[in-house]
Amino acid sequence: MTKAACADRVSKLTPPRLTGPVVVAISFVAMLAWTWFKWPDPLIDFGRELYLAWQVAQGKTLYRDVEHFNGPLSVYFNALLFRLFGASIQTLAYANILIAGAIVSFIYAIVRKAADDITATACGITFVALFACVQFVDTGNYNLITPYSHEVTHGMLLALAAMWCVVRLYETHKLRFALTSGALLGLAWLTKLEIFLAAAAAVGVGLLLSKPVAQTFLSVSSVGGAKSETQTGMSVPPSFQSTLLTMGAMLVVIAVAFLLLLTQLSAGDALRGVMGSAYYLTDSGLTSLPFYRRIAGIDAIAQNAAVAVVSAAAIALLLGMRYLMELPATRGKNPRPSIIIAIVLPPAVAFSVGPWFPWHLALRSLPLVIVVLLIIESVRIRRGGASVSSLTRLMFLVFSLALLAKIILAVQLQHYGFALAMPATLAVVATLVRRPISGSDAISPSMYSGRASRNSVSSVSLWFKLSWFGLSVVATFIAVHLSFYHRRFADKPVHIAAGPNAFFASAGTTGQPSRGESLAALLEQVEARVASAATLAVVPEGAMINFLTGRSNPTPFITLQPPEYLMFGGERITRAYQQSPPDFVVINLTVDPAEYGSAGFDVDYGKTLADWIKQHYTPVWRDGPAGRLVLLRRTVS
Questions:
Q1: Could you count the other beta carbons within 10 Å of the beta carbon of residue 340?
Q2: Among 39, 220, 407, 486, which residue's Cβ finds the most Cβ atoms within 10 Å?
Q3: Is 349:362 a contact under the CB 8 Å cutoff?
């Protein structure tokens, strides 16, 4: 068979270009319909996101009138949306659906460049099914539609866009892509530190794969640039210009943000704002809180490391089984039995182990797996030269590994993992699904002659089928988690608020109302007892109440958990409440600061303010005998 005929045979295996995006889009729509407005948590985190944007949209100044510990970009962007389309939950949800759509589009484009259409489709479906809009823990908001922090949502989009610009830089050699990548990195700096650092590491690796580093690492000739575009799959753009433009654009964006903040703030506050969470990195008390130690897994290093080793062995077993499933095709034997086994085995095993299996521990080995994949990809590049595909894979792996740093020994799909573990999970999905022969890879010359040609082409035609083992594993993993969501969180019968602020919440157990039920009862009481012009504070957390009732907090401090006390200072917070006392206070006992190592807001870290509230406020309503939410009115002296 001729080379042209072989290439034609391979090309026929590739589905139409639009098939993958359409399948991913349909999956996204289906997931949105299933989870429609069941995304927010009634009282935790997301209310802060709404409140900050609402207050800034009304003219208050971030970092002065309302405090914040991340960069300014997300709050001001959301405030702009509120000014244009009205301050409501729907405004942010619809905008975030579009942003999530943009994120999955970049994921699809990047994975397709790194692998093939089938792999990109699998990764896209995995993203929309497991990361975009479902819930796996009791606290909501760990999704991209109503996130606990919009800096995560916006930062992820900017990071992926920056990496895509580096890919386009290598494809086109147009330096405007370096400029754009730098500007996007600058904007990412104004969101969340961990997202920026991961994006900067990935973009940095992309820029380093050019002269002069590429001359050493990739064995590029010093005369004439690269080996040749036909040998390496790409030619190398000038690194000095691209690096200079990228860094320059990034610094310009950050400087402009500082100057804009300086028009409303002092130099110190403007610097604190543009630094975001990086400003507080030197606070050892903050970084040593039990919550962050548990999130990173360093509270039980030996135990978490052992779980990671078992998880790594399981992933290695899956990759080995995929190889075994492919052996019949590679040896010219009938592959049908192995195809059937490949499709049936993963769901059969998942069904046999049942719900008792600790699925939440399955991804603990992601850092180790990504390191191994990075080493393999680096060796491939050094031996065979760099291509646009290999560059894209390397950048995405670096991005994945850097994002895992915050949860390094406690990687999980839920909680922060919806963002931090997402790229690494997709990298493993791509490894399981990616065909050994794709449109971007070379076809061996041994495929062009005699019997070897017929067997090889036959094998190529079966690679598409044999990737079904990886697809079956991925589909089973998705099905297990969506089944868990269906059992635990899909049913949310409690209606909260009305109109553009309406959403659904879970019901409580017998004798114990849920946060949603407590919130619904409180909203009625606030409307009946609190004048529309009155001020209201919720301690230690619950800015959703402020937003839904339209009653603002007269102080800059809306969340009074241990991290905020450490960042902003307990004395400063207490003084602000004493100088600008709210007309009403809600004590929110549905949130437990024990995860931060606290015995309670009124017991240790917030005792001074709690005692002051007890002296100057009188309870007027409580949510049932337990009093999970207590409404207090200021005593007139």
A1: 11
A2: 39
A3: no
Residues across the chain = 637
Q: For the residues of 31-96, what is the DSSP string, one character each?
A: HHHHTTT--S-SSSSHHHHHHHHHHHHTTPPBTTTB--SS-SHHHHHHHHHHHHH-SSHHHHHHHH
- How far is 133 from 414, CA to CA, in rounded Å? 12
What tokens does 153 get? Answer: 């949502």
Q: Could you give the CA distance from residue 576 to residue 573 in angstroms, rounded to a whole number? A: 5
The residue type found at 319 is L
Give the whole-angstrom CA distance, residue 350 versus residue 476: 7
- The terminus-to-terminus CA distance of the chain in angstroms comes to 96
* Alpha-carbon span 270 to 370, nearest angstrom: 38
pLDDT in tens, 533-585: 999 999 999 999 999 999 999 999 999 999 999 999 999 999 999 999 999 99
> Residue 585: enclosing H or E segment and its boundaries?
strand 584-588
Rounded-to-integer distance, Cα 494 and Cα 521, Å: 11
Q: What is the model's pTM?
A: 0.89
Two tokens, residue 336: 């049908």
Q: Structure tokens of 142?
A: 């760990």
Residues pairing with 509 in the sheet: 512
Tokens of 135: 């819930």
Residue 510 CB contacts under 8 Å (≥ 6 apart), including other chains: none
Q: Dihedrals φ, ψ of 62, to 5°?
A: -65, 145
Residue range 168-207, pLDDT digits in tens: 998 888 889 999 999 999 999 999 999 999 999 999 999 8
Contact by Cβ (8 Å): 89, 496: no
Helix (H) or strand (E) holding 495, with range, is strand 494-496
Q: Which residue has the tokens 């450490």?
A: 566
Alpha-carbon torsion (297, 303, 304, 305), positive or negative: positive
C-alpha dihedral sign at 190, 194, 199, 201: positive
Helix%, strand%, coil% for the chain, nearest 5: 65, 5, 30
Torsion of the alpha carbons at 280, 284, 288 and 291, rounded to the nearest 10: -20
Query: Looking at this protein, which amino acid is placed at residue 501?
Result: N
Helix H or strand E segment including 303: helix 301-330
CA distances for 615 relative to 495, 609, 635, angstroms: 35, 10, 9
* Contact indicator for 270, 276 with CB cutoff of 8 Å: no
